[in-house]
Amino acid sequence: xxxxxxxxxxxxxxxxxxxxxxxxxxxxxxxxxxxxxxxxxxxxxxxxxxxxxxxxxxxxxxxxxxxxxxxxxxxxxxxxxxxxxxxxxxxxxxxxxxxxxxxxxxxxxxxxxxxxxxxxxxxxxxxxxxxxxxxxxxxxxxxxxxxxxxxxxxxxxxxxxxxxxxxxxxxxxxxxxxxxxxxxxxxxxxxxxxxxxxxxxxxxxxxxxxxxxxxxxxxxxxxxxxxxxxxxxxxxxxxxxxxxxxxxxxxxxxxxxxxxxxxxxxxxxxxxxxxxxxxxxxxxxxxxxxxxxxxxxxxxxxxxxxxxxxxxxxxxxxxxxxxxxxxxxxxxxxxxxxxxxxxxxxxxxxxxxxxxxxxxxxxxxxxxxxxxxxxxxxxxxxxxxxxxxxxxxxxxxxxxxxxxxxxxxxxxxxxxxxxxxxxxxxxxxxxx
Length: 432
Ligand SMILES: [Zn+2]
Description:
It comes from Nonomuraea marmarensis. This is Amidohydrolase family protein. The protein is an alpha/beta fold. It folds into 2 domains: about 5-60 and about 365-405, Urease, subunit C, domain 1 (Roll); about 65-355, Alpha-Beta Barrel (TIM Barrel), CATH 3.20.20.140. It is built from 13 helices and 20 strands. It has helices at about 80-85, 85-100, 120-125, 160-175, 200-215, 225-235, 245-255, 265-275, 285-290, 290-305, 330-340, 345-350, 350-355; strands at about 5-15, 25-30, 35-40, 50-55, 60, 65-70, 105-110, 135, 140-145, 155, 180, 185, 190-195, 215-220, 240, 260-265, 310, 375-380, 395-400, 405. Strands 1, 2, 3, 4, 5, 18, 19 and 20 form an 8-stranded mixed β-sheet that branches. Helix 8 (about 265-275) packs antiparallel against helix 10. About 55% of the residues are buried. Residues about 415-430 have low confidence and may be disordered. Zinc ion binds near residues 67, 112, 265 and 317.
């Protein structure tokens, strides 16, 4: 393995720092795993740095997906999540992790794992540097009550407050970072309605209390109006979907917006409604079971959440046949096109708020001195065209922890050369 440079200077970049400031030209100096200087960098400080010539390209934080499933295996058959043998499944998860970071995602929050330890094993392997992947907060199988599972074969069943406590304790013993409650239905199952709520207040309260007692957060699949309110009342930290949030739920979310996150998984709804036909779920069928109504209701609600300053984050339940891994940044375009976010707001939601949902707001998600060097060098301006973040060829460099995961070799030669320190390690293999 080649020796790693201790300092890297991104010279002449357009700095999109995720503070909300307009991008500005300058340099960014990385030493070891941290950003140490941004804007006007003292040449003496950067004297020994390897130089990456930005030529005006955009330097920004790596992205966050707030609703990640490494173990969703691109299948059109939901039960395939349960029947895939664990050996093949782990391999698939490792490939998903790599696809995330290949796509510019350096932060992912696990939203459920199809088998007990897939997520935690991936997280630990990434953290140990054995495989490439984003920073990851691992989940376990989602908890559902009897009769309330979306996919039985990947569910951990629990009933009653005591059952919830035991399930949470068992998942914590596996090593998860957060707990997932599957509180409502999902129309594609054919039997579980999105507006059904399966958990009781006592069960949600018990699960959250037990998780929080152990310093773990709780996230929830919560499509119905009642489930959203239960989540807020009982302190569920991250609410997924929230499609049918009613006026009371909206007020509750707003009153608690200093701690609660909403991650709608919007691309799932859109793709399930409009793009699943070749996988046996045509638009007429999706509309017939209510996905059009759910999408329209969700968009109206999410726009209102955005207007009220409730934190809504991208992250889209990727990993089904019609929402395949690697298409993650579609969420940002949906936020702009459908939810009224400006491109800057969508990027802040995917970066600075990503740092918040990863519980490291002072270290992740911004291009600021002292932050960890998780950086993307983008060939283009994502504020002018948010969809370029979906094009991996435009993500020329990907850095995590100050180490390059990807170094572009297919971009134009730097101008003008400064012999001695220009990209002198260009030929070094990408570091995982
Ligand atoms: Zn999900």
